[in-house]
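Annual report, structural modelling task.

Input specification for the iron/sulfur cluster complex:
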Amino acid sequence: MVQSKDLETVSESITPFKQKLGAPLIKHPIRVLQINLGRRCNLTCTHCHVEAGPTRIEELSPEVCSQLIELIQKFPQIETVDLTGGAPEMNYGFKPIVESARASGKAVIVRSNLTIFFEPGYEDLPEYFATQQLRVVASLPCYLEENVDTMRGKGVYDDSIRAIQRLNQLGYGANPELQLDLVYNPAVPTTDSFSLTPNQQTLENSYKTYLSEHFGIAFNNLFTITNLPIGRTKFHLNHRHLHQPYLKFLESNYNANTVEHLMCRDQLSVDYLGNVYDCDFNQMENLSAKTPEGDNLTVSKLLEAGTLNQIEEIVTAPFCYGCTAGSGSSCGGSLL
Ligand code: SF4
Ligand code: SF4
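The model returned the following structure:
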């Protein structure tokens, strides 16, 4: 059964997220524009919630790219443009969007898998990132080689370390204008002994100590991100009959203090077709953001309306429990 603003199809044993909230999840003024440029990626990680890979061909069209550039230039309230994918660098529109956003004075985040630096044609990316002063957010799901290579593929750890060393040489992690943040993703559960993501600050300290001692690496912040049961993660959970138990576990760790800080509050997430969502997770599950009239929102409708504030209530679903469990989770890590 699909309710108006809350997809609740999982099970009677899971409390509908909207019911748990006790009130509609209201959108705040938009500050962040996150753009998923497409599904092309040089890796195929097991935890990938967008199911990206080298054989995927979906990417931004020139028309949507122009609309996004217009949106970025037109609305000063957009403080940050957050580029993701796939590997955003491999998808059409990456550099034009970066350059128009930077020229408009926005902060730009690139969510890079780092190994892209070693693919033919992308070797100049570290210098490009530094020249444009992009904030790099890079996935390194563990500081130990075996765990990273199991999740992301053989050799990924070595390439990631070499890439971070290259960024450090350019000033990332030391120069305040060149910020490098790493992302910790837990492994997808394989038994019902679920656990919450570790304490972010404690894990950051462990990463910093280990990576500095072994490789002389420096970075700014570590973001811990909870696995949401969508995409490949949901597939793997379903395969082991763990989807329902995992949702129940997340629900049992619901923390109402996270709600005010959820990233969907002040963010728009746009796909390569120009459709608008409340967050990247809703985008992957094809849950479009709605206007108060109930219409699906698009970038062209935002341009036509002349305002970004077209959403009253955020669309929620059972997987939202992944964002509210424990200390909470977002693309910027823990919420508390
Ligand atoms: S690098 Fe990122 S986008 Fe690419 S497959 Fe891995 S998780 Fe997905
Ligand atoms: S998945 Fe998380 S960020 Fe997205 S709508 Fe639900 S609570 Fe908000």
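Confidence is low (pLDDT under 50) at residues 1-8.
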